[in-house]
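Researcher: First entry.
Model:
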Amino acid sequence: MRGKIILGILPNLSDEMLKVIRPQILPDYYLLICQKLLHMFGRLVVFFIVLLCIEWYAFQAVKTVVKVKSVVTAYQWISLLIVLLLLYAFSRFDRSTGQTKYTLYTMGLFLLVYVPKILLTLMLLGEDIYRIVQGSITYFVENDNESFLPKRREFISKIGLGLAAVPFLSLIYGMTIGKYNYKVIKQRIFFPDLPAAFDGMTITQISDVHSGSFDNPDKIKYAIDLVNAQNSDLILFTGDIVNTHAKEMHPWIEIFNGIQAHPLGKYAVLGNHDYGEYISWPSQQAKDENFQAIKNLYGDIGFQLLLNEHVYIQKGDDKLALVGVENWGHNFKKAGDLTQAMQGLTPEEFKILMSHDPSHWEYETKKHDKKVQLTFSGHTHGMQFGIEIPGYFKWSLAQFVYKQWAGLYEEFGKYIYVNRGFGFHAYPGRVGIMPEITVIQLKKGEKVA
């Protein structure tokens, strides 16, 4: 701890002060620098060893199956060029800029190349374990000294290459078609305590727009037309209008202003990306100005932003409370204050909550003494990669991080709906988990089996 404090303050000290304290603190300062360099060097060594293993096994599979020497040589040169390109691209990442279309497609290329190669590596590594076991039995038990390792089997490499083609083609599909393959997903939920006037009310939800990733105005216009086609009573936007910078949304404001007025209103909350937390800012003032500009964006497209507060939605003689909190995530920014947002509400009132991160529901909302009947969240994107057969089966790596990661969940008569996201981030595509426009219909009555 002492070394970290010294590393932070030493560059800012004057020459006179350094002369006084250098003998006492300089050894710690240099020790910490050496430790950091060694740690960085160790991580780089591990990275390059793993990279070498992956490339080696992928090459072994190609060499085993392909008999044309010129094709194998071309594969080697292409692999080398891709490695150099990726290393150069990652070395150019600027923490003060954050994600750009350049970094987005660099990550796409990285996944496109290395997900299939990792699959190949696992296949051939498994074969090598088998070869070592078989060779050991042959050598030590059967006393056959001709060859310790059996020859690599061609059909294993063919199976590996066939399996590797699945994620390769899927990732290409995700980057070309899947990222704009919008799906309207409809759910009907029954509540015994729903005010009678809201029986049959429909709510459209969008989430995780990440406008800085868009590159096709026609596709976004099509998605907005889909939103309008639902003719819902209320529309909710559960955060992440940008990746980092307010300016990312500027080219898309006109299109999003095409979202028609809804009879019961248009409301939004902030997501974790709306705070600009993931880059280095030149000053706190610059960060604060960007944050204010992002909050203004929601108003620029006609949404009322709720910041740890609630409003009443009135219909006839009945009303319900719409509650909106700032981002609250178990492993992310905790700016949301549910108690403040529900101040003045009673446990008996019907409440709909907008909270960007579904972990908020798991860790706080569902246990809150002021009952929240229905929560709308997003955030997970369903990891933008998975397998889903609507109504029957869904799987994604997101489920190992979030208990509620896509779709509708219920506990103790309280519901959360997790939208799979409107846009995309980090990986410039979607495989299996498509971009979503949600429509929820509220019905008065007991849950239907």
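Researcher: Second entry.
Model:
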Amino acid sequence: MIRAPCRRSVGHCRRPAGRHRRLVSTGQGPYAHFVPHLNKVRTVLSGGRDGEPGSRSSLSRLRIALTVFFALDGFMFAGWVVRIPAIKEQTGASASALGLALLGVSAGAVVTMVFTGRLCRRFGSHPVTVVCAVLLSLSIVLPPQTHSALTLGLVLLVFGAAYGGLNVAMNSAAVDLVAALRRPVISSFHAAFSLGGMIGAGLGGLVAGGLSPAVHLSLLTGTGLLVTAVTGPALLRHHAPVPEGTEREREPAETVKGTAAGPRRLDGRTRRLVVLFGVIALCTAYGEGAMADWSALHLTQDLGATPGLAAAGYSLFALAMTAGRLSGTALLERLGQTRALVAGGVTAALGMLVGALAPSASLALAGFAVAGLGLANIFPVAIGRAGALAGPGGVAAASTLGYGGMLLGPPAIGFLADWFTLPLALTTVALLAGAAALIGYSARNASADPAESARPA
């Protein structure tokens, strides 16, 4: 009979080390399913020498570096967005021509997201993150050099490709780090993105009146390259930490097909689970896109708000989402992923119903804030779960679906507003948030391993 594992820490257990090694190597006995967790405790808590992937100081430095890259991503993208009106005037593009040119960002991002997962598997998520950050910094200076909608669309393809690649690579690295830390900290990275976006938009608005787009975006290029040069080595010095026993490390014959030397091919069950979490991300991103483009118009057109009050609608939504993500780690640790996801979806649905159907602007603003709190952690949880199931490819697939939701939201709201009314069209955000909660609950036991899914939660 195999005795229960020693309750003391692994490093101070008096039992012979060989017994632990035999248990790890054979995987037999009634405690075989406990061994991966034992290995993770030894990998993360005991750690190795400073600089090894499992050491505390190394994981802390990786977390700081990744947080900086998430913030940089939001900062750069927001800096570009606030200069779109000036770029439109410079190129002389009509509203429809500008809309087509801006699709270059989306097209470049979606196409690159599909392939970035493969690049991360081949070269590692850390080098790909650094390279994409450099490309994003260099490409953001290109739009002010264009003088037609066609050339603007072409350079935005490059910008969008770098942006999409950076998002997949960063999230893949974040999923690895979350597994090593054994704490649900992925929301903190997305909070850094939101904070970076708020700072970038605020500074961009301040300098827009005194600096041309070319000078402003050139400064962003310098800032991006400087931050990457300072922070990038922390990623390049360390491989992504993937503790033993995580779902991506376990490769049962029924889940991963092919030899150990061959490429990993996920079975149909795992693919369906990744798509499921991608749909949850889509439902969330749909709401973000709709709020960004239609909240101000709803407040002015339907509720008679002043332009200043209407502009505060999306700002309040974004601020609430940032606050929700900052508190996301504590929320996930307290409630768990499934309960946090379901609670977030229900909260967002109720908030958007109030925001869309409220008779006054003040009540609508309160509803938007509640919706932001509810949506805050759904996207990070969905992306993280897809990455835990399928690695960088799962992150890429879920991110592509999620980004598709952000693209689908604004035009869908527009068509529905023409057919019905704008308030009724905005209730689709509540509908999809509720759908995300329902899908999240149905996937509460989702695992790449059918045996694990069968275990009670």
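Model: Note on the second entry: Residues 378-419 form the longest helix (42 residues).
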